[in-house]
Design brief:
This protein is of the alpha/beta class. About 45% of the residues lie in helices and about 15% in strands. The strands form 2 sheets. Strands 3-2-1-4-5-6-7 form a 7-stranded parallel sheet, with helices on both faces. A 6-stranded parallel sheet has the order 10-9-8-11-12-13, sandwiched between helices. Helix 7 packs across helix 8.
Length: about 375
């Protein structure tokens, strides 16, 4: 009998990582059957999805609470379909508040199904006690960063595998060829509708300020589902000097050849860094969300490379600093100072070189198949 693998993702970054892994697994064994909760990237791998991640993609504590019954309905449906599929292995990627709820119930109903989870919960940033129960529903935890091992050793079986985004088969970080004519400016407002509602109005104001003094083409790398939504925001604002990319090759090309990127905090910032583009990170949520979460956060920074470096090598404009005036002021500093742009790239590249595993995808796929 052929093996069966069920894939659980909860957001576009996880969907993208899962697609890279499945592509690698297919090279080893073409007889494996797959089923998933996923998005555009897994569908491009011809993986059937029981529902799309857009149905469970919410931002912030309050957003989740408001949609709790819809989320629970999707979780119950997922459990039913997984048990019917009866996989040998479940691969879950990130989104612990969603994926772990499914894994717990599956393990209670069928302990023979093996579970592999990639992207450890950020216990080093907040809610460290979560790690104590992981062994109950995760058979193997795969870690993106070497510093994470000390948090999970002795708690759950784990292996450091590196980040698939930096696998040399996907992207050779030392072979980037950038143009000296930087006419593009990349903006990443997030992938959820709730994120677009927060960040697009802010970014539009920043773009207007930039248009007064510079003549850039604004580049928005996004998923296919968001293309029309972002276009509508920009057209209503009267801004016409923009372009939207949805394929990985196009995204990489235009990020590489952007003078600067401004991005909502998240996995997309690693995509920007692997393309050696100068970067400013922004983040904002409702004040109630922020007040609820802030007491539990143990790190000074939001970006993973700043956390590893233990200093702010990539500028972060969080909450009250995440407004068009402050962002534009920082943007202008970068546009006007090439040495500042080069220094940020040099600093974060040093950090990247300490965490890159060139054969990350092979390691991950071996653990899953075996």
């Amino acid at each position: 009998m052929s093996k069966k693998i069920f894939i659980i993702t909860g957001e576009p970054s996880g969907d993208k990582i899962a697609a890279l892994i499945i592509n690698e697994i297919k090279k080893k064994d073409t007889n494996i059957k797959f089923l998933a909760i996923g998005g555009d990237n897994l569908k491009l791998q011809n993986i059937s999805c029981i529902f799309d991640i857009s149905e469970i993609s919410y931002m912030g504590f309050l957003d989740v609470i408001k949609n709790i019954f819809a989320i629970k309905k999707r979780i119950d449906y997922a459990i039913k379909k997984i048990l019917e599929f009866n996989p040998d292995t479940i691969l879950s990627v990130d989104s612990p508040d969603f994926t772990f709820r499914i894994l717990k119930k599956i393990k209670n109903k069928n302990n023979k199904i093996k579970t592999v989870h990639l992207v450890a919960p950020h216990v080093w940033a907040w809610r460290e006690n979560r790690k104590k129960v992981l062994y109950k529903f995760i058979d193997h935890l795969l870690l993106l960063f070497p510093f994470e091992k000390k948090y999970f050793d002795g708690v759950v079986k784990n292996s450091f595998v590196g980040h698939p985004f930096f696998d040399f088969s996907v992207f050779k970080i030392n072979e980037i060829k950038q143009s000296n004519n930087k006419k593009y400016f990349t903006l990443c407002p997030g992938s959820r509708n709730s994120e677009l509602k927060i960040f697009m109005p802010i970014f539009i104001e920043v773009m207007r300020k930039i248009n007064l003094n510079s003549n850039f083409i604004f580049h928005f790398p996004t998923i296919e589902n968001n293309k029309n939504l972002i276009t509508n925001y920009l057209q209503k604002s009267g801004i016409s000097n923009f372009m939207i990319t949805t394929t990985e090759s196009d995204k990489n090309f235009y990020i590489q050849n952007s003078i600067l990127s401004v991005s909502k905090s998240g996995t997309i910032t690693l995509d920007i860094c692997k393309n050696k583009c100068p970067l400013i990170v922004v983040y904002k949520t409702s004040w109630l969300n922020y007040l609820l979460i802030k007491p539990f956060i143990k790190t000074k920074f939001g970006n993973i490379l700043n956390i590893i470096a233990q200093k702010e090598i990539i500028p972060e404009l969080i909450q009250e600093k995440c407004n068009s005036d402050v962002i534009y002021k920082k943007v202008k500093e970068f546009i006007d100072d090439e040495s500042l742009r080069n220094e940020v790239v040099a600093q974060y590249t040093k950090i990247l070189e300490t965490i890159i595993v060139p054969d990350s995808l092979e390691k991950i796929s071996n653990y899953i198949v075996e």
